[in-house]
Amino acid sequence: MGLPSFPKIYNVHFVAIIATLGGALFGFDISSMSAIVVTEQYNEFFHHPAGALQGAIGSALAAGSVAGSAIAGPISDKIGRRDSIFFACFFWLVGTAVQVAAQDTSTLIAGRVLNGVTVGITSSQVPVYLAEIAKAEKRGSIVIIQQLAVEFGILIMYFIGYGCSFMPGAASFRTAWGTQFIPCFFLMLGLPFLPRSPRWLAKVGRDKEAVEVLARIQANGNISDPLVLAEWDEISVTLQAEREAGRGWRKFVKNGMWKRTMAGMSVQAWQQLAGANVMVYYLTYIAQMAGLSGNVGMVTSGIQYAVFIIFTGVMWLFIDKTGRRTLLVLGALGMGFCHFVIGGVMAHNHYDVPEGVGGNPNIIFAVNSGAPANTVIVFSYLLIVVYALTLAPVCWIYAAEVWSLGTRATGMSLAALSNWVFNFALGMFTPPGFINIKYNLFIVFGVLCMVGAVWFFVFYPETCGKTLEEVEILFGKDGPKPWKTRKGESRLVAELQAVLEKQRGGDHEPVTETTEKV
To answer: According to the UniProt entry, where is the signal peptide (predicted)?
Structure first.
C-alpha cells in the first residue's frame, strides 16, 4: 500500500525541494510563536503566560516531536521514507486546526504537540530519504536543502506573524497560525511525484525497482552504467551483511554499532546544547533586553532569520568540499566564544527591571544602552552566522550518514528523538533561565560548546565524500581513529574502475573521465 501512481521526477535537487517542504513545516511552527509571544494580542488573550507556562507552550512542539521521532523509524521501514512523510502531514492538518481554534493555553499546547508529531517524523525521515537518493559526493549539498527549508519556513512565518500583529484581537495570531496549512498542502501535493528510496526498495526485497530508481537518479535510466552497478554491488553486500546480523535493538549496539548510535544521537543533542535555539526562539527577548522595542525590535529579530538563510546558502556551495569534523569543531568553538562575550557584556552592563521590560514578565533585566547593547546584538547575530555555517546543517547531515542500511530509518529516528528531547528540555529551561540565572544562561551554553568541540574531535570520524556503505568501515572495530580520518578517499572509485575493467573484458587502461566524475 502506498501513494497513488503518478509520473515520477528523478532530478535529485527537485526531489529535495519537494521533500524538504517537511522542513518548512518545522520552520513555520518554530516562528509561529517567536513573532507572536511579544504581541499585546497574544499576551492579553492568553493572560500573559510566563516562566514555566510559556516554556511549556514553546516546548510543546518539541514534546510532540519526541513522540513523532519515536514512531518514525518503524513506520518508515514499513511503508517507506516517502510515504511516512505523507502520513505525517495528517497530524499537521489536525494540529494546525486545533491551534487556530484555541481558546486557552491548554488547547494551544495540544495543537502544538500534534504539529510536533509531524515535525518529529519529517525531521528524521526527510534526511534519511535525501541521503539514500543522493550521490556520495553531493550528499551534503542535498541534505542541506532540508536545513534551508527550515530556515525559509522560519523567516516566512516570522514576518507573517509580524504582519498579522497589526490586526486587532485574536484574529492576529489565528490568521498567522492558519497560514501553516499552506506548506503542508504543497507537500502533500508533491510527494506522489517523488520516487521511493532505492535503498529502502532493496531492503524490502524489491530489487528490480531499486535498480531502476537508482539508474534513473544516477545515470538517466541506464541500468548498465558502471556507477550504478558499482553502487548496487555495495548496497547488496551491505544489506546481506545486515540481514545476517539479526534484528531487534541489539543491532544498534552489536559489532561496534554502539559507536554509530552514540554518534548519531549525540550529534543531535549537541546541536541543541550549543544554545543557538535561544536565539532562534527568543531573540525578540534579547532585543528587548538591549533596548530594541516595538517595530524596531521585531524587524531586528526578523533580520536574524534572513542572515540565517544567507549563510546556510553560502555553506550549501561548500558543504561537500569541507570536512564534517572540521565544521563541527570550529563551529562549536566559535559559538562558545559568542556566548561568552554576550554573557560577559550582560554581566557587567545590566540593570534589573523587576516588573519586566515593557511589562513582559519573562524579561526582568536590561542591558545598558550604547556600546554594551550594540555588542550584545552584534554577537547574537554572529552566533547565528557561525551556527548557520556549521552545526545547523552539519549535525543533520552527519546524523543521516552514520547509520547502516538496516538501521538508518530507526537510527535517524533515535537521532531526531535525541534532538527533540533536548529541544524540549531547553525550551522548558530557557524562559525560567532568563528569570532565575539571567545572563549566566549564556555562560552555561558557552561551556557546553567547548565540551562539544572536544567531543566532536575525539569521537566523530570524517564521513564527507564516503558512500553510505563505506561508513561501515569507519565505525568498525578495525576502523581508523576519528582524528586520523580525512574527507573523500572513497573506495567507490576503485570499485567503479573494477566494473569498467570487467565490462571491457579485462582492459586495464584507466578511465580518467569517468573516475573524475565520481
So the answer is: none
In a domain, 514, yes or no: no
In angstroms, the CA 195 to CA 429 distance is 41
Residue 356 covered by a domain: yes
Q: Within a domain: residue 481?
A: no
Q: Contact at 8 Å (CB) between 423 and 62?
A: yes
* Digit-coded pLDDT (tens) for 245-258: 556 677 787 777 88
**Amino acid at position 383, single letter:** L
Q: Is 365 helix (H, G, I), strand (E, B) or coil?
A: strand
Nine-digit cell at 287?
532585543
- DSSP at 167: S
Residue in this structure with the C-alpha cell 532565575, named with its chain if needed: 436
Residue 515, pLDDT > 50, answer no
Query: In the prediction, which pLDDT does 123 show?
Result: 84
Q: Is the pLDDT of residue 424 over 50?
A: yes
Q: 3-state DSSP call for residue 470?
A: coil
CATH number for the domain including 262?
A: 1.20.1250.20
Give the cell for residue 459: 569521537
What CA–CA distance (Å, rounded) separates 467 from 394?
17
Does some domain include residue 203?
Answer: no
Q: Which domain holds residue 97?
A: 12-198+237-459
Backbone angles phi, psi at 365, to 5 degrees: -150, 160
The answer to whether the beta carbons of residues 328 and 456 sit under 8 Å apart is yes
Say if residue 513's pLDDT is above 50. Answer: no
